[in-house]
């Protein structure tokens, strides 16, 4: 087996097969070298955990996409040589290109309920702009782009059919496939652009000037993605049209390779088995030709995307919006920080001190990296505690009735000034 294509032993001596192997090896080496160079920013972003994690996720996805794309190309080149030379292994059968057209005909456009995702994101941005007037332009841009994306997706369902061939099955199949690809393209565009508008909003609201370059790089990079997505989809459609029309009405000889569309995933609607042995590696893979297989294969994707975006957002937010401690005229101490804000009165303080060390413990609900600790923790010897600290002393330790609060600023001198202010208030009460 070569690139997940079954071949007879003598085929391995074919010069064209050897050429595919050599090209794959050279391309793989180039990919590894480029990705090794692209990994350098992960090290350079050591002091910016949020950006480091986000960049690492992008790096992992890019590496997988590059290797998968080249493996898939090698699979197709090998499969074409196999058919050209009649190198079949095991049961050999004839299929007609009409079967491919029938498969394409069953493709469906993106369901309209999917657009509830970008619409919900738009509603969230609009509600955000109600409290933050400076974000009005962001919410308007998000609303307009979402509607502009939804209308073509609706129009695709009534789009005039294009005539490709005298074969009606081929015409129906290619038109249906075209509608499917373009409708999903508009869904992806709407979602990505809402993410872009969200990042622009966060950038506008950020008071930090230290990360302007990184913010602009992320925003501009994400702005390029839709253009690349459009190019990819239309190239995919053109390739599909060319491949289908070339095979129109011709017999195709095949074995089980036909069910492994890219060499790694199995798709056979006629096979009711949900799990099948992998062609490459060990273990089982799912049959995406079954409904259960589709859910198993694609169901976790939105969850993973949501987790990646959520974690990245929280970490980046912690970088640009550190906790802020203020004292109100009523002597209330308020610590403002997204999701973990807390306030108490000076009279609730039982003890206040400046310490150089925080007891070890575990996070129960919050954020913890080697640079910061924010949220709810359970500390040894002290018990429940709320942490709002950079992991560099000194720390303000405040003992309340049933818990502790730890707070500091990034600048040690500023931490000392805040401590002196709180200590003075504490003595007065």
UniProtKB/TrEMBL annotation:
This is DUF5808 domain-containing protein. Keywords: Membrane, Transmembrane, Transmembrane helix. Residues 269-294 form the DUF5808 domain. Coiled coil: none annotated. Residues 330-417 form the Bacterial Pleckstrin homology domain. InterPro entries: Bacterial_PH-related (IPR027783), DUF5808 (IPR043831). It comes from Paenibacillus roseus. The chain crosses the membrane at residues 31-48, 54-71, 110-128, 134-154, 184-206, 212-234, 295-316.
């Amino acid at each position: 087996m070569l690139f997940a294509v079954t071949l007879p032993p003598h085929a391995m001596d074919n010069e064209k097969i050897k050429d595919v192997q050599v090209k794959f090896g050279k391309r793989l080496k180039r990919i590894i070298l480029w990705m090794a160079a692209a990994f350098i920013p992960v090290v350079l972003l050591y002091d910016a955990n949020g950006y480091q994690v986000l960049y690492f996720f992008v790096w992992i996805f890019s590496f997988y996409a590059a290797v998968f794309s080249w493996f898939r190309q090698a699979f197709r080149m090998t499969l074409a040589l196999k058919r050209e030379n009649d190198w079949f292994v095991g049961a050999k059968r004839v299929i007609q290109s009409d079967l491919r057209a029938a498969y394409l005909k069953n493709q469906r456009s993106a369901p309209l309920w999917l657009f509830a995702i970008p619409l919900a994101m738009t509603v969230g941005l609009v509600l955000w702009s109600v409290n933050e007037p400076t974000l009005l332009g962001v919410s308007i841009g998000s609303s307009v782009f979402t509607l502009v994306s939804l209308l073509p997706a609706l129009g695709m369902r009534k789009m005039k059919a294009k005539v490709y061939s005298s074969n009606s099955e081929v015409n129906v199949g290619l038109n249906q496939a075209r509608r499917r690809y373009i409708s999903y393209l508009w869904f992806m565009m709407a979602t990505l652009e809402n993410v872009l508008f969200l990042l622009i909003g966060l950038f506008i609201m950020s008071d930090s000037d230290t990360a302007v370059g990184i913010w602009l790089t992320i925003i501009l990079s994400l702005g390029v993605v839709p253009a690349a997505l459009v190019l990819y989809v239309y190239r995919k459609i053109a390739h599909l049209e060319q491949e289908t029309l070339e095979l129109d009405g011709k017999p195709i000889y095949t074995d089980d390779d036909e069910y492994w569309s890219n060499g790694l995933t199995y798709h056979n609607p006629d096979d009711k088995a949900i799990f099948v042995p992998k062609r490459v590696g060990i273990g089982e893979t799912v049959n995406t030709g079954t409904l259960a297989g589709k859910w198993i294969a694609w169901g976790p994707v939105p969850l993973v995307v949501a987790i990646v975006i959520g974690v990245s957002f929280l970490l980046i937010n912690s970088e640009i919006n550190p906790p802020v401690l203020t004292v109100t005229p009523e002597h209330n101490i308020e610590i403002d920080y997204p999701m973990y804000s807390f306030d108490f009165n000076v009279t609730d303080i039982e003890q206040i001190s400046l310490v150089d060390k925080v007891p070890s413990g575990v996070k129960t609900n919050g954020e913890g990296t080697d640079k910061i600790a924010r949220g709810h923790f359970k500390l040894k010897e002290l018990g429940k505690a709320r942490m709002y600290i950079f992991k560099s002393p000194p720390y303000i330790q405040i003992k309340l009735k049933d818990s502790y609060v730890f707070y500091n600023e990034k600048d040690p001198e500023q931490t000392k000034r805040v401590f002196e202010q709180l200590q003075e208030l504490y003595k007065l009460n």
